Amino acid sequence: MVRIGIVGVGFMGYTHFEAATGLKGARVAAIATRDQKKLAGDWTSIQGNFGPRGGKVDLSKVKTYADYRELLADPNIDLVDLCLPTGMHESAVLESLAAGKPTLVEKPIAVELKAADRMVAAARKAGVPLMVAQVLPFHAEFQFVLKARETGKYGKLLAAHFRRVIAPPKWSRHIEDFRALGGWGIDLHIHDNHFITLLCGMPQRVSARGIVSDGLVNHVHTQYVYADPQLAVSCVSGGIAAAGLQFAHGFEVYFEKATVLFSAGTIGGVWQVERPLTLITNDGKAVTPTVKTGPTPKSGKEWCAAFTAELQTAVNAVRQKSEPQLLSGALARDALRLCYAESKSITTGKPVAVA
Description:
Layout: E1 2-7, H1 11-19, E2 26-32, H2 36-39, E3 63-65, H3 68-72, E4 79-82, H4 89-98, E5 103-106, H5 113-126, E6 130-133, H6 140-151, E7 157-166, H7 175-181, H8 184-187, H9 190-200, E8 205-213, E9 216-225, E10 232-238, E11 245-255, E12 258-267, E13 270-281, E14 286-287, H10 305-320, H11 329-348, E15 352-353
Parallel strand pairs: 1-2, 1-4, 2-3, 4-5, 5-6, 7-10
Antiparallel strand pairs: 7-11, 8-9, 8-15, 9-10, 11-12, 12-13, 13-14
Helix pairs in contact: 1-10, 4-5, 5-11, 9-11
């Protein structure tokens, strides 16, 4: 049994706690938070941009720590799951690795690229797995595209376009919070950069246009330039949508023998699947493939099923003493590197080589 310790009980900590109920061979054994109400099981103050509000939680079989360092020192914790604010990632990750704990940290790995470099280097030196919870590849629609590319079932990948946009959340009006996120060009768009790198590899250059506010990218249109001049990959992402467009994401992926489409989002407060995952083949047929993310949490709700699949991958890695590609700390760092290259391209008006 892999025993998980969750550090930080905000919305993501709550999401991971719920998702863990569907795990095989693992359970949440401890949590750490400075909030005394949450330590007592009152999570009613928790709310996010998807899924239900928090409620009353039974922690009778879970150790509780007000200081996360006590959780790191607990010999009965096999996997540390860090769900802290991004600005705390580096220090907590370095402490967890120094304690010899396989570590999963929420995305983005960091805001500063040098911090991400230090974290990856520390994991390598310690010989301890560092995993970053980039959840997008664990969503069924995105899994389908990755599998299609890996198997070559539909031939060569020819082109792809991705979209991920939001309206500015109310809390982003506070510039301190917004800066801590690194702007939507990091906090939101890093999902796309991570997935594009998984699907297509690291591009040679990026050419981007967008909106930079106070030194932070808030909206970006990017063309990813690869050695193959006929591979066309692009993305639009940002946080400038009108208030009624709370969230939207999707893709168009073109293979030699098929085109794959998907589009969904929250519009006017209602979740709408505008285009369910659709496979269009050269024989003129269009079908909706049957896909399943993975185990469903015991709550029976699908809202955190992708997180269950993500956590199961981390648990399996602890057993195998490995670092899975989908959760690779180095890959997450490279996605952040792309974000900085895009920012430079926007501000200089020129294509930028990816270092």
